[in-house]
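Hey, quick one: can you model this chain's 3D structure?
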Amino acid sequence: MVEVVSPNQSSRDYRYKRSEYAARGIAEYWIVDPIQERVTVLEWVEGFYEEKVYVGDSAIASLVFADLKLTAVQVLQCQ
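Sure thing. Here's the predicted structure for all 79 residues.
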Protein backbone atom coordinates (compact mmCIF):
# COMPACT_ATOMS: atom_id res chain seq x y z
CA MET A 1 0.00 0.00 0.00
CA VAL A 2 1.35 3.44 -0.93
CA GLU A 3 -0.09 6.68 0.40
CA VAL A 4 0.87 10.05 -1.11
CA VAL A 5 0.59 12.91 1.36
CA SER A 6 -2.05 15.41 0.31
CA PRO A 7 -1.48 19.13 0.82
CA ASN A 8 -3.27 20.32 3.97
CA GLN A 9 -4.03 16.69 4.93
CA SER A 10 -0.72 15.54 6.37
CA SER A 11 -2.09 14.70 9.83
CA ARG A 12 -4.72 12.48 8.22
CA ASP A 13 -2.10 10.74 6.11
CA TYR A 14 0.45 10.33 8.92
CA ARG A 15 -1.82 9.68 11.92
CA TYR A 16 -5.34 8.59 11.12
CA LYS A 17 -4.56 6.25 8.24
CA ARG A 18 -2.17 4.34 10.49
CA SER A 19 -5.02 3.07 12.65
CA GLU A 20 -7.15 2.28 9.58
CA TYR A 21 -4.37 0.19 8.05
CA ALA A 22 -3.66 -1.57 11.34
CA ALA A 23 -7.34 -2.55 11.65
CA ARG A 24 -7.13 -4.05 8.15
CA GLY A 25 -3.96 -5.97 8.94
CA ILE A 26 -1.76 -4.21 6.37
CA ALA A 27 1.75 -5.63 6.94
CA GLU A 28 3.57 -2.72 5.32
CA TYR A 29 2.71 0.60 3.77
CA TRP A 30 4.61 3.56 2.43
CA ILE A 31 3.96 7.26 2.90
CA VAL A 32 5.36 9.31 0.04
CA ASP A 33 5.71 12.94 1.08
CA PRO A 34 6.64 15.22 -1.82
CA ILE A 35 6.45 18.31 0.41
CA GLN A 36 9.05 17.06 2.90
CA GLU A 37 10.83 15.04 0.20
CA ARG A 38 10.84 11.77 2.09
CA VAL A 39 9.46 8.26 1.97
CA THR A 40 8.37 6.61 5.20
CA VAL A 41 8.02 2.84 5.28
CA LEU A 42 5.86 1.45 8.07
CA GLU A 43 6.15 -2.24 8.93
CA TRP A 44 3.79 -4.08 11.28
CA VAL A 45 5.89 -5.59 14.09
CA GLU A 46 4.32 -7.25 17.14
CA GLY A 47 1.14 -5.17 17.10
CA PHE A 48 2.61 -1.78 16.17
CA TYR A 49 3.99 -0.04 13.12
CA GLU A 50 7.71 0.64 13.11
CA GLU A 51 8.70 3.41 10.75
CA LYS A 52 11.82 4.04 8.77
CA VAL A 53 12.32 7.34 6.97
CA TYR A 54 14.25 7.56 3.71
CA VAL A 55 15.51 10.71 2.00
CA GLY A 56 17.74 11.45 -0.97
CA ASP A 57 19.71 8.52 -2.30
CA SER A 58 18.86 6.28 0.65
CA ALA A 59 18.00 2.79 -0.60
CA ILE A 60 14.55 1.80 0.60
CA ALA A 61 14.33 -1.49 2.50
CA SER A 62 11.07 -3.39 2.27
CA LEU A 63 10.15 -6.74 3.82
CA VAL A 64 7.23 -7.16 1.43
CA PHE A 65 9.21 -6.21 -1.70
CA ALA A 66 12.62 -7.58 -0.75
CA ASP A 67 13.98 -7.50 -4.32
CA LEU A 68 12.87 -3.93 -4.99
CA LYS A 69 15.77 -1.55 -5.52
CA LEU A 70 14.60 2.05 -5.25
CA THR A 71 15.82 5.19 -3.53
CA ALA A 72 13.69 7.91 -2.00
CA VAL A 73 14.61 10.25 -4.88
CA GLN A 74 13.46 7.72 -7.47
CA VAL A 75 10.10 7.27 -5.75
CA LEU A 76 9.59 11.01 -5.38
CA GLN A 77 10.31 11.56 -9.09
CA CYS A 78 7.53 9.13 -10.07
CA GLN A 79 4.62 11.23 -8.88
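One thing worth noting: The mean pLDDT is 90.
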